[in-house]
Design goal:
This protein has 171 residues and is mostly beta strands. The chain has a single domain, classed as Immunoglobulin-like (Sandwich), CATH 2.60.40. The chain is built from one helix and eight strands, in the order H-E-E-E-E-E-E-E-E. The strands form two sheets. It has a four-stranded antiparallel beta sheet, with no helix packed on it. Strands 3-2-5-6 form a four-stranded antiparallel beta sheet, with no helix packed on it. It binds calcium ion (2 copies). One calcium ion is lined by residues 63, 66, 70, 72-74, 94.
Length: 171
């Protein structure tokens, strides 16, 4: 009888353990794809979000020649890869800190062969009479996210006043 009870409780324990494993919490970066066998063949940047930019250009107005409120920058993100432009967003006229976060939708697709390639993610200030002003940006490559396949990544550095977020779709 004792042996049966012991066997039953052991069975119960195994069932509980089994159930616990079934109910394992998905990682926060779960996007429906990253099971153990998943290997991405491409990544699509679905959204570019600017979460921080400096309101002045080292203390001066971004658009010093413009009158009134338009002295603020008119930012847009640009993505370059291998020397060619992949994406250029519509400029956001006269942006202030209260406009943050600023979002742009994108359909930039980078295939697996380019996961190691350097991608330039930059913010520019649109200008009417001169060529646009480069504000700041980052070099990124997607190889560091292979395996974890995060749905959202934050691009930041303590030495930079710029911060981006990218919403990614791995396929
Ligand atoms: Ca402006
Ligand atoms: Ca401008």
């Amino acid at each position: 009888m004792k042996r049966i009870l012991y066997s039953l409780s052991l069975l119960g324990l195994l069932l509980v353990l089994g159930c616990t494993k079934e109910g394992e919490v998905k990682p926060t970066n779960w996007n429906g794809n990253n099971n153990n066998n998943f290997t991405a063949t491409s990544v699509t940047i679905k959204r570019i979000i600017v979460t921080a930019f400096p309101q002045t250009n080292n203390g001066s107005a971004w658009d010093p020649t413009n009158l009134g409120s338009n002295r603020n920058p008119d930012p847009y993100p640009r993505i370059m890869m291998g020397g060619s432009e992949q994406y250029r967003g519509q400029y956001w006229e006269d942006a202030t800190q209260s406009d943050l976060p600023m979002r742009w939708t994108s359909d930039v697709r980078i295939s697996k062969v380019n996961f190691d390639t350097r991608v330039d993610l930059d913010l520019y200030d649109y200008e009417v009479t001169t060529s646009d002003t480069w504000m700041g940006g980052y070099y990124i490559s997607f190889s560091k996210w292979v395996g974890t396949y995060p749905k959202t990544v934050t691009i930041s550095n303590s030495t930079s006043p710029y911060e981006f977020q990218l919403e990614l779709e791995w396929n």
